[in-house]
Design brief:
Layout (H helix, E strand, L loop, with lengths): L1 H14 L5 E3 L8 H9 L3 E5 L5 H14 L4 E6 L5 H10 L4 E5 L7 H7 L3 E5 L3 H10 L3 E5 L5 E2 L5 H12 L5 E4 L5 H9 L4 E4 L13 H9 L5 E3 L12 E4 L3 H17 L5 H20 L24 H18 L2
Parallel strand pairs: 1-2, 1-9, 2-3, 3-4, 4-5, 5-6, 6-8, 8-9
Antiparallel strand pairs: 7-11, 10-11
The structure holds flavin mononucleotide (FMN).
Length: 334
């Protein structure tokens, strides 16, 4: 346990937690209950703002604070049309850590966040971008591989870790995400220079998660190979692939892409609007599955680590198990 604490020290100091384990923001799933439960269990919960309005985010932060006095963060999507107002909401609540997701931050966003006093965590999809984000003022980085659930990049976690950690880990805290299901993997990334990890899929079936029973059942039934990336129908459309469980919704997404591509061709919409429409589509499809429990017509976003989700259990049990596995893996190396 001592070795694990040592390896996580920069991460726990940065987050203000017992363990350097972030509960990755998951739209609709990472709301007050799960976020507070992760923070109360010694990890770091992150609210998924997703497509929320500033008013809704304001309520969510206030309600999360009512459930925990431990640190937690807020994840904002860079392409949200009201990004500045969302940052102002975080500032009013003195949110300690803001995670910026969904592409390179627009001009001014980083400065605006940092001027609130919050620490800024950004996603680095390649070494050059990691260095650029460091120069722009990011306080910590997440490197997330394509094994992850939700929107994904093209490169595997194991490769990103080798490409990025040796070059920047001494200068900035780096958290590794994507495909982590057990503590042995956490131990390995810490030994490679990461200060901590981020997990999403493993927390979906926590007791405290409000995800619909059907959503949780789909996770418990699924194996790694069921979590597949969405297919891009039209190469001109800026579609970021999404990893989700195979189902009927995948066909709906193809139809949606054709519809948006036609509107683009006809000049009815511009590229930025096309991208926004695709993102709104995902937000709606994910809601249908997570909240309404329609796991056929909704999107069941899940990472490849879904095969390691075996049961519904309290967040504390998930974190304890991960910590135990990581500590014993490190202990066995001596
Ligand atoms: C259902 C679901 C929804 C997600 N939504 C978001 C999101 O809104 N913003 C974000 O930055 N990441 C999102 N993610 C990614 C997670 O924050 C996390 O990085 C990822 O799940 C880590 O990989 P893992 O699932 O293999 O643990 C989502 C993941 C899942 C499974």
């Amino acid at each position: 346990m001592i070795r694990l604490k040592e390896l996580m020290l920069r991460g726990t100091a940065f987050l203000g937690t017992e363990w350097a384990i972030l509960g990755g923001a998951m739209s609709w799933v990472s709301e007050r209950n799960l976020v507070a439960a992760i923070s109360n269990a010694g990890g770091f919960g992150v609210i998924a703002c997703g497509a929320m309005s500033p008013e809704l985010l304001d309520t969510e932060i206030a309600e999360t604070k009512a459930l925990t006095d431990k640190p937690f963060g807020v994840n904002l999507i860079t392409m949200h049309p009201q990004l500045d107002s969302l940052i102002d909401v975080c500032a009013r609540h003195e949110v300690s850590h803001v995670v910026l997701a969904g592409g390179l931050p627009p001009g001014g966003a980083i400065e605006r966040i940092k001027s609130t006093g919050a620490k800024l965590i950004a996603f680095a999809p390649a070494l050059a971008l990691a260095k650029k984000l460091m120069r722009s003022g990011a306080d910590a980085l997440v490197i997330e591989g394509m094994e992850a659930g939700g929107h994904i990049g093209p490169v595997a976690t194991s490769v990103l870790a080798q490409e990025i950690l040796p070059h920047v880990a001494a200068d900035i805290p780096v958290f590794v995400a994507g495909g982590i299901g057990r503590g042995e993997a956490i131990a390995a990334y810490l030994e490679m220079g990461a200060v901590g990890v981020q997990l999403g899929t493993r927390f979906v079936c926590a007791h405290e998660s409000i995800a619909h029973e059907n959503f949780k059942k789909a996770f418990i039934r699924a194996s790694a190979r069921d979590a597949i990336p969405s297919v891009q129908i039209d190469p001109r459309l800026p579609v970021i692939p999404v990893r989700a469980l195979k189902n009927r919704e995948m066909e709906n997404f193809a139809a949606k892409q054709r519809e948006v591509a036609q509107a683009l061709d006809g000049g009815a919409i511009e590229m930025a609007e096309a991208q926004l429409q695709i993102e709104h589509y995902w937000a709606g499809a994910l809601r249908r599955a997570v909240i309404d429990g329609d796991v056929e017509r909704g999107s069941v976003m899940a990472g490849q680590s879904v095969g390691m989700v075996k049961r519904e259990e309290p967040v504390q049990a998930i974190i304890d198990e991960l910590v135990e596995e990581a500590a014993s893996a490190l202990g066995a190396r001596r």
